[in-house]
Design brief:
By secondary structure, the chain is an alpha/beta fold. It contains 6 helices and 6 strands; from the N terminus they run E-H-E-E-H-E-H-H-E-H-E-H. Helix 5 links the parallel strand 5 and strand 6. The chain is globular. Bound molecules: guanosine-5'-triphosphate (GTP) and magnesium ion.
């Protein structure tokens, strides 16, 4: 059997595991501190389909630079090696702090890790990933709107597709926007001929 994967990527603490719990019902570990998911964790769904909960990548307060680099390396290798067998990628980010974090990085001459990862996934998988713009409950509406606008502007850089249909503002905590993401995952899997494991209304 050739395994097929639904992968969730994102920085530490973005809410990957929380979204996986809500969307699939899988009992994956979540935690208040960054670095809860420590290895590439695969969970069987239906048939040959597996869900992959990735560790977070990017700066973590307690991790050494070496272990962060090693983790990023493992994630990149997994994605490149399995590109043909990735049924779907969902990149998760904390939209409530997106601009603040992005500006801080840009001042130092770096590109947002989230923007880089979305573009890396689009290039490696030859398909734009779904983007879960999580934690909308953590800032007011205007701030979230401004952050979403900047996110879309940055990730669509040179991309001809209308990214609005790929970005899902949501909160794993309140459940807002979760149904839209779940439907999009379901629809993409069905379109590719997978027997979908998700129960959508
Ligand atoms: N306010 C708020 N908190 C959230 C939301 N989603 C997740 N959290 C919280 O954020 C923290 C991190 O959630 P996880 O799901 O463990 O995040 P993760 O991306 O899997 O983190 P790592 O495994 O460390 O990479 C937990 O305390 C969650 O309860 C959200 O939409 N809103
Ligand atoms: Mg996790």
């Amino acid at each position: 059997m050739c395994k097929k994967y639904i992968v969730f990527t994102g920085r530490p603490n973005a809410g990957k595991s929380s979204i996986i719990r809500e969307v699939t019902g899988l009992d994956v570990a979540t935690g208040k501190r960054p670095g809860t998911t420590r290895r590439i964790s695969k969970y069987p769904l239906t048939g040959d389909l597996f869900l992959v909960d990735m560790p977070g990548f990017g700066r973590m307060t307690k991790a050494s630079k070496d272990s962060e680099d090693r983790m990023m390396d493992q994630i990149i290798k997994f994605l490149e090696f399995n590109a043909q067998n990735i049924a779907l990628a969902v990149h998760t980010l904390d939209i409530s702090t997106f601009l603040e974090v992005t500006w801080r990085l840009e001042k130092k001459g770096f590109v947002s890790v989230d923007v880089e990862m979305v573009q890396f996934l689009a290039n490696t998988l030859c398909e734009f990933p779904l983007v879960a713009a999580n934690k909308i409950d953590k800032a007011d509406k205007d701030e979230i709107e401004a952050n979403l606008k900047e996110l879309m502007c940055r990730i669509s850089n040179g991309h001809p597709l209308p990214v609005t249909s790929y970005v899902f503002p949501m909160s794993a905590k309140t459940g807002e926007g979760l149904a839209a993401l779940k439907s999009a995952i379901h629809e993409r899997l069905v379109a590719k001929g997978y027997r979908t494991p998700l129960k959508v209304r």
